[in-house]
Amino acid sequence: MDRLVTRLYCSFVDVxxxxxxxxxxxxxxxxxxxxxxxxxxxxxxxxxLRREELAQLxxxxxxxxxxxxxxxxxxxxxxxxxxxxxALRLTADERAHLHRLARPDAPGSLSDESAGVRPxxxxxxxxxxxxxxxLIGRRTELLAWNALFHQVFGEMGPVPSQRTASHYLFLNExxxxxxxxxxxxxxxxxxxxxTGLARxxxxxxxxxxxxxxxxxxxxxxxLWQAHEVEEWSGxxxxxxxxxxxxxxxxxxxxxxxxxxxxxVRGLLLWSARPGTPSHDRVRRLAALxxxxxxxx
Length: 296
Hints:
Layout: H1 2-12, H2 15-28, H3 51-58, H4 62-69, H5 78-87, H6 92-102, H7 119-126, E1 132-137, E2 142-145, H8 147-153, H9 165-171, H10 181-199, H11 204-216, H12 218-224, E3 237-243, E4 247-257, E5 264-271, H13 277-289
Antiparallel strand pairs: 1-2, 1-5, 3-4, 4-5
């Protein structure tokens, strides 16, 4: 079934079509008045800028830009890509995404087989009795987690092949306990997968995962059509989780990058600030997760 889904996905999505759709989506969100152009009040047949207008802003020929938007990126220079990125007002993540789409990696640059999780990482996670820890793969696989994580967030899914952040966010009702933060997490998940597709264009497992999610979740598909991109950074933020027993718990959330493990994207950490009601709730959950852990 997974191979069938991958073949269906590949039949209508490849790197060229991704490049074309991405450029069109970013051109459509700009208005002439936003970039200093005069529209003269004429009715526009398409939203956003015309190809001619975008080419003018970027300082490239219309023919050159049109070929790029059609997915023909052979021999395009980094300077031209940067000029187009500037004209489209791309973010840093979007600019990097454009470069990857226009210059896809050679086939076979990365193994499709998941590497084993290093024992040292598992030991580190187990030692974090007051911090919920999750190890996530580059295809959003949930590779490993510690006892407190399970106690706080519950079951991640009974089927190993469906234990991914994508499946959890879009197909597990428990994820809605994130409340207002669910949408932010969902958008980030889809945006990260799109950057991954550009970084590993020949990863059949990644393509299959995206295809399955697009078929199973209308919400995932709607976000996919937005063509948003976002790198997986290490910046932290505060999130609130509505625990079914303890109630709302405010967490400081951190993402730790692991560049030495190519199949592992990073380590996710949730901790509550000492001296807060949230910290007391986490201590009670830690006592349940770790026998002998003191409540006080």
